[in-house]
């Protein structure tokens, strides 16, 4: 019946209604026939539309020049694109080894994951559209590897609250739906975040103002794809999921279903960018494009659309892309999840923003040779499709404003009538603005000469205007105060400075104001309204001096206390007697003895907590005389110049060593190799002890970072020494590790300093140990570690395993998040094989995948009961994050272990 009607419709010249009437005369149930007719009509419509719309199937790359003939177009063509051919060498040892990239992009989170922006001038000079290789990139983790031949099999599932769950392959997405091409500006919610980080470090990494880019995206409308799955009435949200597997699951987020279905909003699925198939970093082969909203909603490597009643419960939807109230500090936010789960704080539409690209940061204008006019230029955008209606510039701190010229290249596409890159440019009926616009203003140089800064602000059609003051929030997102370029007039030249430079790049007036003690939060860019820098609020000092103690100590007296007997040491010119604390110092007596008779200020202040500092009152015995302070300085300079002999480390003075090799072991783990002072030298570290590493803090001048490490290389190795370090890079929700990110940033040839050994425990071999210098024997070790805490444990274990005569029984309980986080796994497993049953290794993972067959969960009572119950002559060694060490110790004590048999490294 159905095909009969279809044939009639296709072949006859009768109108559809005549056919219908004819059909309705037959002796069938009217209801059944009508149903058939509806289906037939739909089929008919589909057949005819298919004939009308040419469908270009772009499995192979299309040459843009062929696809777009600029003379034919009155629209801005994409800038010439140079597809990077090979992965850069920095990426070769990361999970993104397969992703070719442009080396001009500025990396914002170290080597991996790849988050980057183009230099602002290059971005602006590209014009309205950005080439895919300079388009900003925001990847939360590794880029999924999608081979050319796998693309046709790429599947998109549409599921959840739908009548007709669907699995569409890539080919169907291209062939079964109308294709559209739309210019869209994507903006990361963190754009301009470095300015927030200058005021107060947020939980996010430092974007400059180039976390914004524009491209022509091609693909079907998201609404058409969802429509086909027939959403239920109660479906309210569309959750999207990408194929990138991250520590907290796949990347995912949600948007409202009614937005998706609203043709004005232009939500689409894209497989092309500027006419080329998507590049790996931008979601190859398929991504969502959500115009007018923050980039975080445009899910890349899209695999699922799930219709739900509530917003997404994906970790990245909850803990990312939010503006929490400004008074919520990072500490409060991390303690209480309610702040994250409140949908009111989730960001969808972009807010209004603008920046200037010209003058460039660091640009210099000679007053004697320049023309009379300088043209300032920049960009502006707003959210939700709202048009930018004005961009204004002030040269007098906002007292008066000048209207700029605005160019809206997006409007050119509204009149475009044919297909572009295989998609219809269907914008003539829609008035929404989804792209940035470009502004410019001709300014008399004489006005610039009189000004101290160029201020830029934009307004949109809803009269939203950029604020003067910053709204700081925990994630540092949606930063949009007036963009300010400072002007310094020096000997006939004007020097321009942007607020910041991206990533850890130094420069920008905000950094200078901060250094000079100005207050960046007062709304006057660190100045009073009269132009003078304000005093910075004083930092709370911990009192480490006894009230009323008037005891001056000379150098000679200090020197008499330079050994383990009554060790005295100096912090900030004050003298402390460490004798009473020798037994209790968590780092072992050696930590105090190494400082005896010396000035320990730098390392004491760098590594001790406020609680430790407050304890110093009890040990304070007097103040060093001025002459003694000078004498101490001279002595320490002399020592530093000395070159030591057989062993490198000195317990009492810092020794310099050069970084000669950096090996990337995994995306977050490195082995750093340091050159000792000569070929025959060994590091000089007893097994079980640690050394201190000191390097300059890249984020604060004149400050050092000091941490304890245990080398990974054998202690008797000559000429070089290796450290295995896990890099804790900053993410949107966590602060990066200061020391590990600084280490990761070191160039080959950089010099760092070491001192040691330190630690209260030593393994002498074959069951002999010393704890706080007291020797004893043990018959087994229970070694409990978490994450990078494996390094000291590994050193002891290796000493036992490598000595065939050493019969000590060792059980290692190693806690990690995921399989890839397990450090030294191959070596550990080899020891277990080599010396079974003397050596047992137990890995327990908190975020294991389904295929993991080992233990799961944290280091729990059950695990410790099973593998570390107390036994006569045994000793427990623990090393890991503080919380893990504390909870393991509590469990062990409850299990019956004695305090003296538990060593925390
Ligand atoms: N989609 C997936 N699957 N994984 C991601 O890490 N990052 C989001 C979004 N989509 C992300 C994602 C964020 S925060 C932004 S700003 C945009 O992608 C960036 O898109 P781009 O890298 O193509 O510029």
From TrEMBL:
Domain of life of the native organism: Eukaryota
CDD domains: cyt_b5_reduct_like
Residue positions binding Mo-molybdopterin: 188
GO MF annotation: an example: sulfite oxidase activity
Region called Disordered, residue ranges: 73-94
Domain FAD-binding FR-type as annotated: residue spans: 652-764
Signal peptide region: 1-15
Matching InterPro entries: Cbr1-like_FAD-bd_dom, Cyt_B5-like_heme/steroid-bd, Cyt_B5-like_heme/steroid_sf, Cyt_B5_heme-BS, FAD-bd_FR_type, Flavoprot_Pyr_Nucl_cyt_Rdtase, FNR_nucleotide-bd, Ig_E-set
Annotated Cytochrome b5 heme-binding domain residues: 550-625
Reaction catalyzed: nitrite + NADP(+) + H2O = nitrate + NADPH + H(+)
Pfam family, one: Cyt-b5
Cofactor: FAD; Mo-molybdopterin; heme
Cofactor, free-text remark: Binds 1 Mo-molybdopterin (Mo-MPT) cofactor per subunit.
Alphabetical keyword list: Disulfide bond, FAD, Flavoprotein, Heme, Iron, Metal-binding, Molybdenum, NADP, Nitrate assimilation, Oxidoreductase, Signal
Biological processes, Gene Ontology terms: nitrate assimilation; nitric oxide biosynthetic process; sulfur compound metabolic process
Assembly mode: Homodimer.
Family membership noted in the UniProt record: Belongs to the nitrate reductase family.
PANTHER family: SULFITE OXIDASE, MITOCHONDRIAL, SULFITE REDUCTASE
Role according to the record: Nitrate reductase is a key enzyme involved in the first step of nitrate assimilation in plants, fungi and bacteria.
Name of the molecule in the record: Nitrate reductase
Source organism (scientific name): Elaphomyces granulatus
Origin organism lineage: Eukaryota, Fungi, Dikarya, Ascomycota, Pezizomycotina
């Amino acid at each position: 019946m159905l095909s009969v009607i279809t044939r009639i419709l296709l072949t006859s010249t009768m109108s559809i209604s005549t056919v219908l009437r004819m059909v309705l005369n037959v002796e069938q149930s009217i209801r059944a026939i009508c149903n058939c007719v509806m289906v037939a009509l739909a089929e008919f419509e589909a057949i005819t539309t298919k004939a009308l719309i040419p469908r270009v199937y772009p499995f192979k790359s299309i040459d843009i020049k062929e696809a777009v003939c600029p003379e034919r177009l009155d629209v801005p063509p994409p800038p010439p694109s140079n597809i990077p051919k090979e992965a850069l060498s920095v990426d070769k040892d990361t999970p993104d080894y397969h992703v070719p990239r442009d080396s001009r992009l500025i990396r914002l989170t170290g080597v991996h994951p790849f988050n980057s922006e183009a230099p602002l001038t290059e971005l602006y000079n590209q014009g309205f559209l950005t080439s895919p290789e300079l388009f900003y990139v925001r990847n939360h983790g590794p880029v999924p590897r999608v081979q050319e031949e796998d693309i046709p099999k790429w599947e998109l599932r549409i599921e959840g609250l739908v009548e007709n769950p669907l699995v569409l392959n890539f080919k169907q997405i291209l062939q079964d739906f109308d294709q559209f091409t739309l210019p869209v500006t994507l903006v990361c919610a963190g754009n301009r975040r470095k300015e927030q980080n200058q005021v107060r470090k947020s939980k996010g990494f430092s974007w400059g103002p180039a976390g914004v880019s524009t491209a022509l995206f091609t693909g079907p409308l998201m609404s058409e794809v969802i429509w086909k799955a027939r959403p239920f009435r109660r479906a309210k949200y569309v959750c999207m999921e990408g194929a990138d597997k991250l520590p907290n699951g796949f990347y995912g987020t949600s948007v409202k279903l009614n937005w998706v279905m609203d043709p004005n909003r232009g939500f689409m699925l894209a497989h092309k960018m500027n006419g080329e198939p998507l590049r790996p970093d931008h979601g190859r082969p398929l991504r969502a494009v959500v115009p007018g909203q923050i980039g975080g909603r445009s899910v890349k490597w899209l695999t699922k659309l799930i219709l739900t009643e509530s917003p997404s419960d994906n970790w990245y939807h909850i803990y990312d892309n939010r503006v929490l109230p400004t008074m919520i500090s990072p500490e409060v936010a991390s303690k209480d999840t309610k702040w994250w789960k409140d949908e009111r704080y989730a960001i969808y539409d972009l807010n209004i923003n603008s920046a200037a690209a010209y003058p460039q940061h660091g640009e210099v204008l000679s007053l004697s040779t320049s023309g009379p006019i300088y043209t300032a230029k920049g960009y502006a955008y707003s959210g939700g499709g709202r048009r930018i209606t004005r961009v204004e510039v002030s040269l007098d701190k906002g007292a008066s404003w000048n209207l700029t010229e605005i160019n809206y290249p997006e409007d050119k596409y509204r009149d475009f009538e044919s297909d572009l890159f295989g998609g219809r440019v269907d914008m003539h009926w829609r008035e929404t603005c989804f792209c940035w616009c470009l502004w410019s203003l001709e300014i008399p140089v004489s006005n610039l000469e009189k000004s101290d800064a160029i201020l830029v602000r934009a307004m949109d059609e809803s009269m939203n205007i950029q604020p003067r003051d910053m709204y700081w929030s925990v994630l540092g997102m949606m930063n949009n105060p007036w963009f300010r370029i400072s002007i310094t007039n020096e000997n006939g030249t004007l020097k321009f400075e942007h607020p910041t430079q991206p990533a850890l790049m130094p420069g920008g007036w905000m950094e200078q104001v901060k250094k000079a003690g100005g207050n960046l939060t007062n709304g006057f860019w660190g100045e009073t309204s009269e132009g003078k820098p304000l005093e910075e609020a004083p930092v709370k000092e911990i009192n480490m001096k006894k009230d009323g103690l008037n005891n001056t100590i000379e150098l000679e007296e200090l020197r008499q206390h330079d050994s383990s007997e009554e060790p005295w040491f100096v912090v900030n010119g004050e003298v402390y007697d460490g004798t009473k604390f020798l037994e209790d110092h968590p780092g072992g007596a050696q930590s105090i003895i190494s400082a005896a008779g010396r000035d320990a200020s730098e390392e004491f202040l760098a590594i001790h907590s406020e609680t430790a500092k407050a304890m110093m009152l009890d040990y304070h015995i007097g103040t060093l005389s001025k002459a003694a302070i000078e004498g101490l300085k001279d002595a320490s300079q002399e020592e530093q110049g000395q070159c030591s002999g057989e062993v490198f480390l000195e317990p009492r003075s810092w020794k310099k060593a050069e970084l000669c090799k950096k090996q990337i072991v995994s995306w977050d783990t490195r082995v750093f190799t340091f050159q000792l002072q000569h070929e025959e030298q060994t590091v000089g570290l007893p097994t079980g002890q640690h050394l201190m590493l000191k390097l300059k803090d890249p984020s604060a001048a004149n400050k050092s970072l000091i941490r304890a490490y245990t080398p990974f290389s054998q202690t008797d190795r000559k000429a070089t020494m290796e450290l295995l370090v896990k890099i804790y890079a900053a993410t949107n929700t966590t602060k990066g590790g200061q020391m590990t990110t600084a280490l990761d940033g070191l160039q080959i040839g950089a010099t760092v300093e070491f001192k040691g050994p330190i630690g209260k425990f030593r393994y002498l071999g074959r069951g002999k140990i010393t704890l706080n210098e007291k020797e004893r024997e043990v018959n087994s070790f229970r070694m409990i570690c978490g994450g990078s805490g494996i390094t000291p444990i590994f050193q002891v274990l290796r000493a036992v395993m490598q000595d065939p005569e050493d019969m000590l029984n060792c059980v290692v309980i190693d806690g990690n998040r995921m399989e890839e986080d397990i450090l030294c796994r191959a070596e550990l497993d080899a020891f277990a094989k080599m010396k079974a049953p003397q050596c047992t290794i137990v890995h327990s993972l908190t975020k294991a995948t389904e295929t993991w067959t080992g233990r799961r969960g944290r280091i729990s009572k059950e695990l410790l009961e099973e593998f570390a119950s107390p036994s006569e002559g045994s000793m427990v060694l623990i090393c890991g994050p503080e919380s893990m060490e504390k909870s393991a110790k509590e469990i062990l004590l409850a299990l019956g272990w004695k305090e003296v048999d538990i060593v925390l490294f």
